[in-house]
Amino acid sequence: MLRLTTGRVGSLLTRRVTAAVTTSSTRMASKEVSESVDMSQPMYWDRVDIPLPDRPYKDVLTDADKSLKQKEKGPWGQLTKEEKIALYRLTFCKTYPEMKQQTAEWKTVMGGIFFFLGFTGLVIWWQSVYVYPPRPRTFDDEWKSQQLKRMLDMRINPIQGFSAKWDYEKGQWK
């Protein structure tokens, strides 16, 4: 337990020193450097699987929002529907139906898939034209038919092979 507390104190001191050093060094000459987001602080997000975010949607409240927050402490029966919706929007950005609403992201994904498939096709075509050697003549139909005829003339594998299925007297397949 003592290590955990010491670690937290050390982390806090380190964070404060780092923040003091970086804020003074972010202003360089005449240029402003954008500050990074502190990921250790609670953040807001709308997710269906986590219904309550770490912090409310609006951190900085206007005067109207502050008066609405004061009204919230009283009986809710006196609030109008619009005020209840405004109070909800102070804490949450989207409702569940808004979060579950379909997006057009699938179009982007499918477009990316088709783009890369098309690019791959172009690469394969380019390789077949400029990289690979021409097809060997042994793949031509004429060569294959001559090779088959020669194998039949030599009577290759006459017991169980394709020579056994050739009728030599009629000159056709059995």
Summary tags:
174 residues; mainly alpha; two-stranded antiparallel sheet; 4 strands; mitochondrion; transmembrane helix; transmembrane; Cyt_c_oxidase_su4
Question: Short description, anyone?
Answer:
This protein has 174 residues and is mainly alpha-helical. Among the domains are: 102-132; 139-173, no CATH class.
Word description of this protein:
With 174 residues, the protein is mainly alpha-helical. A two-stranded antiparallel sheet has the order 1-2. Residues 24-30 have low confidence and may be disordered. Among the domains are: 102-132; 139-173, no CATH class. The protein is elongated. The protein has helices at residues 2-25, 63-72, 81-91, 96-100, 105-131, 141-153, and strands at 27-28, 31-32, 166-167, 172-173. The relative contact order is 0.04. β3 (166-167) and β4 (172-173) form a beta hairpin. It has six helices and four strands. The longest helix has 27 residues, at 105-131. α2 packs across α3 (81-91). One of its GO terms (cellular component) is mitochondrial inner membrane. One of its GO terms (biological process) is mitochondrial electron transport, cytochrome c to oxygen.
Whole-Å distance between the termini? 89 Å
The largest pleated sheet is described as:
2 strands, antiparallel
- What is the SS-derived class? mainly alpha
* General form: elongated
The percentage helix is 40-55%
What fraction of residues sit in β-strands? under 5%
Mean pLDDT: 84
**How many individual β-strands?**
4
Rg estimate, integer Å: 38 Å
| Number of separate helices | 6
Helix-strand topology string: HEEHHHHHEE
- Sequence of strands across the biggest β-sheet: 1-2
Uncertain runs are 24-30
